[in-house]
Design goal:
Layout: H1 46-69, H2 80-100, H3 124-138, H4 141-158, H5 167-185, H6 194-210, H7 215-236, H8 238-243, H9 248-265, H10 271-275, H11 290-293, E1 298-305, H12 308-319, E2 322-330, E3 333-340, H13 343-353, E4 355-363, H14 364-371, E5 376-384, H15 387-395, E6 399-402, H16 411-421, E7 423-429, H17 436-448, E8 452-455, H18 461-469, H19 477-489, E9 492-498, E10 503-505, E11 508-510, E12 515-519, E13 522-527, H20 530-542, E14 548-553, H21 559-572, E15 577-582, E16 590-594
Parallel strand pairs: 5-6, 5-7, 7-8, 14-15
Antiparallel strand pairs: 1-3, 1-4, 2-3, 9-12, 9-16, 10-11, 12-13, 14-16
Helix pairs in contact: 1-2, 1-3, 1-9, 2-3, 2-4, 3-4, 4-5, 5-6, 5-7, 6-7, 6-9, 7-9, 12-13, 13-15, 16-17, 18-19, 20-21
Length: 595
């Protein structure tokens, strides 16, 4: 690849390593949901957003591995390129769905504020808001969360009535708002990062807009301004300077801005011309050792439904728990990202603020090994019905997917968790019979990506805990899968639930409000009191023997129930041990496992 023109970009360090973010043609092809169409040079509309989105996904897909390789800040976990790509992919899916569902025959407002024709394509406002929303709900990692807020800032301006502003000044204002909102979303902004690159792009775009530039002119100025700022990041952030790399998140943002310029210019630059504005790529830099950097052990991400005043209090609470805090969104829906040592406390803070869901907890241990050039050999992905269980499995090193009551994870969520595990081999614990189909589909798609996946047919979370307890990441894959499958199969499982209505069961007729005791999926006991029914279920389960009883208490179940069951085991089954966990929000009133 040709070196950058020193006359065009003075002062660029020649020995910095960073990937080409050229969004032009590449030998590696990826199907995209929309074939980009050339745009007039000064038109901002839904089609332009659609084209931008497709080009951004393609550009990030090509640069993904190279960006991962230079990821050294804030944590050297080698996933920035992947996180940006997955965030852009989520935004692209939401945009395609929104535009595809636009009702025909509806008059809408166009970018210039005039009524749309009958049956016309969706408005610019509709498109940018759908695009930003898709990024928000699918944001991954620190960089993906910031990208989501940047897109929200763009949507906040382009989604409004443009008034007398032309496309160029309007886009310039959108880029400025994007940078401002991104800075506000980060608890402790650091220069030399993606934020710095976004601010430089906004300043350059504003200058072009003030000079009566077209939208394409503004996009090109922002792109060039971002590239220049990217080159300066190693001198602003010591971690980058030591590693000899530019900021990975900023590199991804350059790719996204390059895609914006292409979408608006209507031109596909020749590969050589683009390479002349990119930077040559030597061998990927070795990231700094994150063990030496220190810092929290877990990344916690979740979507949150909450009011803005409650989110302000959440920010303060999370800021005291860890670092890399980014809270983005608005209008009642937020995406929360933080690095902590106590993932349970981070989730609990979200419960206090509102309703957290799609909770993802990732342990940095495997990420750090991968960042040192070691791809993780094996990982476990576990579906768990409770936030407490998610924290427990996360502490054991598993990548977790939260199954909320009545909302089993779909194939996309499970596939995303497999990808987040960053492993050559993955053991998937679906956690319930109703999740096996989605688990099998996700495993099949992951295998197509070259990942070896085994699905253990767990039917309850307690079987998953038993399987996780014997997991041996250093043994052979086949032996590990056999051992985990055997441990899960040897664990009888029970559960307490409350009947919602009169119904016929295998234990007789139950009435609404009755406590149902299930053993291995079938109703075995019908009672009126939680504690009496729980003891009756446990008595039946231990009737066929056992060495270990696992109790998982729901969020509203008192500790007295656990004490009663533990006493029952101690007095009647002296050789049996008991362990008790809190399942947390979304877990059943009581889960029982007998091994």
């Amino acid at each position: 690849m040709a070196a950058a023109d020193p006359a065009r970009e003075p002062g660029r360090p020649a020995d910095l390593r960073y990937p080409a973010v050229n969004p032009g043609p590449h030998k590696e092809e990826r199907p995209v949901p929309h074939e980009p169409q050339p745009q007039p040079a000064d038109e901002l509309d839904a089609e332009a957003v659609r084209t931008w989105s497709s080009l951004a996904v393609a550009a990030l897909g090509r640069a993904r591995d190279d960006i991962d390789a230079i990821n050294v800040y804030p944590v050297a976990d080698a996933d920035t390129g992947t996180n940006l790509y997955l965030t852009a992919e989520s935004a692209d899916r939401a945009l395609a769905e929104a535009l595809g569902k636009a009702p025909a025959g509806v008059s809408e407002t166009t970018a210039d504020g005039q009524p749309g024709a009958e049956g016309r394509a969706p408005s610019l406002s509709h498109a940018v808001r759908a695009y930003a929303h898709g990024a928000l709900i699918g944001a991954r990692g620190n960089s993906g969360t910031i990208l989501a807020q940047l897109l929200r800032g763009v949507a906040d301006v382009l989604g409004e009535d443009p008034g007398d502003r032309g496309p160029g000044p309007l886009l310039a204002q959108a880029l400025t708002r994007a940078a401002e909102e991104a800075y506000e979303a980060v608890a402790h902004p650091v220069e030399g990062t993606m934020l710095t690159v976004a601010a430089a792009a906004a300043r350059a775009g504003e200058a072009a807009g003030a000079a009566a530039g077209t939208a394409a002119d503004v996009a090109l100025a922002a792109y060039d301004g971002a590239r220049a700022a990217l080159a300066d990041t190693p001198g602003q952030l010591a971690e980058l300077g030591r590693a000899g790399v530019v900021d990975a998140g900023g590199c991804g943002l350059v790719a996204v801005l390059g895609a914006l310029w292409q979408a608006l210019s209507g031109r596909q630059p020749a590969p050589e011309a683009i390479r002349g504005r990119a930077v040559p790529v030597p061998q990927p830099a070795q990231p700094c050792d994150a063990e030496e950097q220190g810092g929290p052990a877990y990344e916690v991400i979740y979507l949150l439904e909450a009011a803005e005043p409650d989110v302000a209090q959440l920010r303060e609470r999370l800021d005291g728990l860890g670092d890399s805090l980014v809270v983005v969104g608005g209008d009642g829906l937020w995406n929360v990202h933080v690095h902590v040592d106590d993932p349970g406390a981070a989730v609990e803070a979200g419960v206090v603020a509102g309703r957290p869901y799609r909770i993802r907890i990732t342990h940095f241990g495997d990420e750090r090994r991968r960042a040192r050039g070691e791809r993780v050999q094996r990982a476990v992905v576990a579906v768990v019905p409770g936030e407490g269980l998610a924290g427990l499995c996360g502490e054991a090193g598993a990548t977790t997917v939260l199954a909320r009551t009545g909302e089993a994870p779909d194939t996309t969520e499970l596939l995303d968790a497999i990808r987040r595990a960053h492993a050559r081999e993955v053991v998937l614990l679906p956690g319930g019979a109703d999740q096996r189909a989605a688990a099998a589909a996700a495993a099949e798609r992951a295998r197509a990506d070259g990942v070896r996946v085994a699905v253990i047919p767990t039917r309850s979370a307690v079987q998953g805990l038993a399987a996780l307890a014997v997991h041996d990441p250093d043994g052979s894959f086949d032996e590990d899968v056999v051992a985990m499958t055997a441990a899960a199969g040897a664990t009888r499982y029970g559960e307490l639930a409350v009947a919602e209505r009169q119904s016929f069961t295998s234990a007789g007729i139950c009435q609404a409000g009755d406590v149902l005791g299930l053993i291995d999926g079938d109703v075995a006991v019908i009672g009126s009191a939680l504690d009496d029914t729980a003891e009756a279920v446990l008595e039946r389960m231990l009737g066929s023997g056992g060495e270990l009883v696992t109790l998982v208490l729901g969020p509203e179940v008192p500790d007295a129930l656990a004490a009663r069951l533990e006493a029952y085991v101690q007095h009647g089954h002296l050789a049996v041990d008991t362990v008790t966990y809190r399942g947390g929000r979304h877990s059943a009133p009581l889960l029982i496992g007998v091994e």
